[in-house]
Amino acid sequence: MSVTIFIKDLVKKYDDTTVIPELSLEIKKGEFFTLLGPSGCGKTTLLRMIAGFNSIEGGTIQFNDRVINQVEPGKRNIGMVFQSYAIFPHLTVKGNIAFGLENRRLSKAEIASKVDDILKVVQIEQYKDRMPKNLSGGQQQRVALARAIVIRPDVLLMDEPLSNLDAKLRVDMRNAIKDIQREVGITTVYVTHDQEEAMAVSDRIAVMKSGVIQHLGTPQEIYQRPANVFVATFIGRTNIIEGSLTPEAGGHRLHIGQSYSEELSNIQLPKSHAQKAINVQISVRPEEFVMTEDQTGLKATIVHSVFLGQNTHYFVDLESGQRVEITQESKTTQILDPGHTIYLKVKKDKINVYDAEGELNYTGSGQL
């Protein structure tokens, strides 16, 4: 059970439109791997190609050393959990879970044993005799998950499995799914458009746009050093500010606004740009701003604030007219009023600096 998935030069076309152009990817054995991106980016199309539900117009998909391009979906030994739970309304919980095992013609004793084991793993053994209509959304999702993994598939595919649940239950279920996946150790490919969900459950994430992987890495890597501005703005919240870089002894100087600059030692430029001033885009997450009394910082005016317990979010206008969001730890002192003038600096080892088009990250690893 569990395989490495090798995807090489994969192409998907609908008529004359290419939606996935020569995508290559390796998903490790036992990994929880997430395809993340906005609607229409190709993530579900790719999942369905792995499942065998969509045709392949070029390239290969392998489970270990077995090419599966022409293998029927039912013979790929996959488990699948859909957005709609797709559980049978006329069968009990244990009847739903046993369905796949019965199709594999296992003995009644073996089926009963496997069903009892998986009921304990997904923690719904007390509901085994209930009908689906008498289950909550979270319980129904656990039934769907149990049915998918009880057959011991090589690969578990999950397509937006939590989108029909309310916010609190989504959090509870994503934690449960991650715990269950770790326990059973199945190679899992998970599709979602929810970046927080992806960050919470994944070993690695592929952020997709227009059928192309923009960044592949761990949640920490993608959040801290996004490959481009698209990834920076899609993963978490960030402010994109225009600035410039000039070379100086030992590094570069980043200029933001009229009077604020910081020396950076972690900039890696192409040789063609190394010795000249260039325009850049700067990604500064709300928590990467620091309020300061130093008037050489970015001058800003508070527009409004949102108190969220531990942190307060301020929305402020810079002198340029750009509105940015900053996050500060809530203090016992009064929250600053609209119209209040403040000065801002950035945590220079945390921010990311991109080329003028926002396609190339100039920022090295630095001190994180």
UniProtKB/TrEMBL annotation:
Keyword list (alphabetical) reads: ATP-binding, Nucleotide-binding, Transport
Q: Which SUPFAM superfamilies match?
A: MOP-like (SSF50331), P-loop containing nucleoside triphosphate hydrolases (SSF52540)
- Spell out the InterPro entries in the cross-references: AAA+_ATPase, ABC_transporter-like_ATP-bd, ABC_transporter-like_CS, ABC_transpr_MalK/UgpC-like, Mo/tungstate-bd_C_term_dom, P-loop_NTPase, Transp-assoc_OB_typ2
**What is the top-level taxon of the source organism?**
Bacteria
Q: Which Pfam families does this entry report, sorted A to Z? A: ABC_tran, TOBE_2
Keyword Transport: yes or no?
yes
Mention any one GO cellular component term assigned to this protein in its UniProt record.
Answer: ATP-binding cassette (ABC) transporter complex, substrate-binding subunit-containing
Molecular-function annotations in GO: ABC-type transporter activity; ATP binding; ATP hydrolysis activity
Question: Per the database record, which ranges form the ABC transporter domain?
Answer: 5-235
Q: Does the keyword Nuclease apply?
A: no
- Please give the PANTHER family that the UniProt record associates with this protein: MALTODEXTRIN IMPORT ATP-BINDING PROTEIN MSMX (PTHR43875), OSMOPROTECTIVE COMPOUNDS UPTAKE ATP-BINDING PROTEIN GGTA (PTHR43875:SF1)
Q: What is this protein called?
A: Polyamine ABC transporter ATP-binding protein
